[in-house]
Specification:
The structure is a single chain. This protein is an alpha+beta fold. The chain folds into 2 domains: 71 residues, no CATH class; 103 residues, no CATH class. The protein is 41% helix and 17% strand. Strands 6-5-4-1-8 form a 5-stranded antiparallel sheet. It has a 3-stranded antiparallel sheet with strand order 3-2-7. A hairpin with an 8-residue loop joins strand 2 and strand 3. Helix 2 packs antiparallel against helix 3, helix 3 runs antiparallel to helix 4 and helix 5 crosses helix 6. The chain is elongated. The relative contact order is 0.14.
Length: 185
């Protein structure tokens, strides 16, 4: 009976995990929340995953430290850094992808690296942000992000990620952009 209550609690958290108007919880992390919901609702892992499903990395760090009395693990601190605006610049995608990939692995997911390429004679790619700005993501016809579940994650998507079709509609280059799963960034 307790297990059922915890599962229902986890599902309710998912339903209310929106972080703002029009934003829902990450389905990849939401799946982890459901998996974690069979754990006690008081467990650190469960709480950590629910914070991350809402995109609240800073809250996850504070909660972890408060409940364990220890510093947050390096992969969690690195995840916060990965999504920083400072990483929304050409040449930083590979390191960002490694950080995000590691974090998803630690959360029990099976992340994949996704490489985006365009014609090398016109190597620039830009990403159209919600605020209308379009920072350059590549000067060498190559960009990489992480796919977990149905979503793509990088410094441009933030912790809530973005569907591949939406991501591709915002990734622009003079020539078509193609993508493929790769083993390493």
């Amino acid at each position: 009976m307790r297990r059922l209550r915890v599962l229902v609690f986890g599902l309710l958290l998912l339903a209310g995990a929106a972080s703002g108007p029009g934003q829902a919880a990450s389905p990849a992390l939401a799946a982890t929340v459901v998996q974690a919901s069979v754990l006690s609702a008081d467990s650190i892992r469960f709480k950590l995953v629910t914070y991350l499903a809402r995109g609240d990395i800073a809250g996850a760090i504070v909660m972890y430290e408060a409940h364990t009395g220890q510093a947050a693990p390096a992969w969690l601190m690195d995840l916060q850094v990965a999504y920083s605006v400072a990483n929304q610049a050409a040449g930083r995608c590979q390191q960002v992808a490694r950080l995000i990939h590691t974090a998803f692995g630690k959360l029990g997911q099976t992340p994949q690296y996704i490489a985006f390429r365009t014609d090398e004679t016109k190597p620039f790619m830009v990403f159209e942000l919600v605020n209308g700005k379009s920072p350059s993501v590549s000067h060498n016809a190559y960009h990489v992000a992480v796919r977990a579940g149905d979503l793509i994650y990088d410094a441009y998507t933030g912790p809530l990620g973005m569907k591949l079709s939406d991501y591709l509609s915002r990734l622009h280059a003079q020539y078509p952009v193609v993508w493929e799963v790769v083993v390493s960034p």
